[in-house]
Design goal:
alpha/beta; seven-stranded mixed β-sheet; 34% helix
Length: 411
């Protein structure tokens, strides 16, 4: 990938990662970019970096050469966030430029020591601090803790109005030769919005309250460009991604969009017989329905769908007095992400015993999820015509409730 100009004196470098599990956990079918930025005044700073995976730091270093940047001219490395997908390159960088100065938050300092053995030439910064690079270019710093690690800061270039936000305002999706929103079509912008939802739901969702605080703090800045650590740079409409994140944060406690996510699992096809009629009933009411089967669907897909949905339908059998285990695992993860206040309905089969409801209630209580359920429907063995009719009726009711709630949502 070629180095590109963000604004006068600011350059974007990037490496794409594909065919990996992000954080060794989340599938990213469309990959992810890791962005780094060179900022030049009389002195030069690089803001954030990339991971230390095989070949990736070398990709970054080759981009220095493309831009005619001598690595020995880099005076400062600004670390907004210590997660290794942004800091892992430091070990390789120290081999070729050992005497740079790191600028980072107080909470990041012990991480530098424990991650990479770095304990000197470090400047601690926080709210109200700044770094003068000369030629009128001043970097100002703001603490945005828990977006999504506690040491996180954002860096603002006061000359160009560029906010370097690292994980905040980021998205999944690899970047080709058009890394800026002013170079993309509406369809391409929509693609990155979808990738931003997935990124938010998978990576940032549990920290939605800190996200709101960070947006409020950044709202005081005269932002003209948003340059995140993942995804495209926003310079035509920088407030779009900020407003998107504000909306995503509000989805945590709901209401969200007029959508329903149906998550289902079936051992021998009996619960499955009611899935199709349930989907048809909700679509007939005019709501969008996301359908995911467990354990086949990835948690990342399910989290993204549930995050934007005001309603959820759970369809699964009882298994050994409890819920179908893949469903319990997914719901536990939704609880950890603090997905709250959904309208919901559960149905499913049982054989020699029920018991799924008890475990469902336990999960809801453990994570304080506050989902409002319609009366569940369980059937012994295979559903008959009356069961199917009742499932259709309750799914239509759920869809109507979702439309009503979403219609009055402020977001």
């Amino acid at each position: 990938m070629n180095i590109t100009s963000v604004a006068d004196g600011i350059y974007r470098l990037s490496a794409n990662a594909e065919d990996i599990l992000f954080e060794s956990l989340w599938p990213i079918p469309n990959g992810v970019s890791m962005n780094s930025y060179i900022v030049r005044g009389e002195k030069t700073a690089i803001i954030d970096g990339v991971c230390g995976w095989d070949g990736v730091p070398q990709t970054l270093f080759s981009q220095f050469e493309q831009a005619g940047i001598d690595v020995n001219s880099i005076d400062y490395v600004v670390i907004n966030h210590m997660e290794p997908d942004h800091s892992g390159w430091l070990e390789d960088f120290r081999k070729i430029r050992p005497d740079f100065t790191i600028v980072t938050s107080k909470k990041a300092v012990p991480m530098l020591e424990s991650f990479y053995g770095i304990h000197n030439r470090v400047i601690e910064v926080g709210d109200g601090d700044s770094l003068d690079l000369g030629e009128g270019r001043v970097l100002a710093f703001a603490e945005i803790p828990n977006v999504h690690w506690p040491e996180t800061i954002a860096t603002f270039d006061t000359l160009s109005g560029t906010l370097f936000s690292c994980d905040a305002f980021g998205s999944f999706g690899v970047i080709s030769d058009a890394p800026y929103d002013d170079q993309l079509s509406g369809e391409q912008i929509d693609f990155f919005e979808t990738e931003a939802v997935r990124y938010y739901a998978n990576i940032v969702a549990a920290f939605s309250t800190p996200v709101k605080k960070a947006i409020e703090k950044c709202g005081t800045l005269p932002i003209r460009i948003v340059a995140p650590g993942h995804g495209i740079v926003w310079r035509r409409d920088p407030h779009k991604i900020i407003n998107d994140y504000r909306r995503y944060a509000e989805y945590q406690k709901g209401p969200a969009r007029d959508e329903v996510t149906l998550i289902w699992g079936s051992m021998y096809g009996m619960t499955e017989k009611a899935v199709g009629p349930a989907v048809e009933a909700m679509e007939a009411e005019g709501v969008k329905v996301h359908v995911h089967r467990v354990p086949e669907s990835s948690w990342g897909d399910i989290l993204a769908s549930v995050w934007t949905s005001t309603g959820v339908v759970l369809a699964m059998p009882t298994y050994e007095y409890k819920m179908f285990p893949p469903m319990a695992a997914v719901l536990d993860e939704l609880g950890k992400k603090k997905v709250q206040n959904r309208k919901a309905f559960r149905f499913g089969s049982y054989g020699w015993s029920g018991g799924a409801q008890k475990e469902l209630d336990e999960i809801m209580e453990r994570w304080k999820m506050k989902w409002e359920f319609l009366e569940p429907l369980e059937f012994k063995g295979s559903p008959d015509d009356d069961h199917i009719a009742e499932i259709r009726s309750r799914c239509r009711e759920l869809a109507r409730e979702v439309k009503k709630i979403a219609a009055v949502s402020p977001v």
